[in-house]
Amino acid sequence: MSSPYNAEPPRYPTPPYPGQAPYPPMGGTPYGAYPPPPMGYLPPEAWPAVQQDPRNPPVLANPGQRLGGHALDFLFVFLGAVLVGIVFLLIGRVTGRPGSAPESGALLVCHLVVMLAWVVLYDPVQTVLWGRTLGKRCAGTRAVPLTSPTERLGFGQALGRWLLHLVMTFIPFLGLLNALWLLWDRPYYQCLHDKAVQTAVIRQRG
Predict the structure, then answer these.
(1) Which of 33, 136, 157, 190 is the most buried (most CB within 10 A)?
(2) How many other C-beta atoms lie within 10 A of the C-beta of residue 197?
């Protein structure tokens, strides 16, 4: 049984030239009314880019790709935080002196600031620069604005999306609900943090 995410993209009628009469209805679908797309494709009326190039519409990432990307991103965040801790531990051992409490306190503050910056900026910086994070790159997906899937997320939208994801993850039951919401959400297969900032996750072509 073939996956609905591997279905052929829907074909939509080409608009008439200026001054040309509208095409007559074909197969019971009047001109201007798109037939429903196969599962895994986004409704064209919500995607201007689909109307411009209906032969190559964006394809939604499947649940396995999305959950895999989430897991990998949190693994990379954890590994990065551990690496930051090791670096500051080594710095403390090299520069530390007996009775240097102020220096130790300053080093701890720097450690916390760098750690916080890594956790908070991990996703939005990569999304703005390259369109996707390390986890999404491995999973073959990317997050896009709901109404313009050919563009990258802006920094504010990417930051809000990531912070909501982080906060929900550490709230009992809400983190699990957020991750599983895409299994029954239609038509965009969004998680709750996607809905809050109007984003979707699609397959990365190429």
Answers:
(1) 136
(2) 21
Task: Please state, in angstroms and rounded to a whole number, the distance separating the CA atoms of residues 9 and 40.
Answer: 9
User: Could you give phi then psi for residue 30, rounded to 5 degrees?
Assistant: -65, 155
Which amino acid type is present at position 172? P
φ and ψ at residue 203, rounded to 5 degrees: -70, 145
Q: How far apart are CA 60 and CA 53, in angstroms?
A: 16
pTM for the model stands at 0.73
User: Is 202 strand, coil or helix?
Assistant: strand
Q: Report the alpha-carbon distance of residue 72 to residue 171 in Å, rounded.
A: 20
**Chain CA centroid to CA 81, Å:** 21
Structure tokens that stand for 82 in this block:
């551990």
What DSSP assignment string belongs to 4-35? GGGSPPP--PPPPPTTPPPPPPBTTB-TT-PP
148: left (phi over 0), alpha (psi -120 to 50) or beta: beta
Contact (Cβ atoms closer than 8 angstroms) between residue 93 and residue 55: no
**Cβ–Cβ < 8 Å for 93, 100:** no
Q: Could you read off the pLDDT of 145-188 as tens digits, one per residue?
A: 988 888 899 999 999 999 999 999 999 899 999 999 999 998 88
138 φ, ψ (degrees, to nearest 5): -65, -35
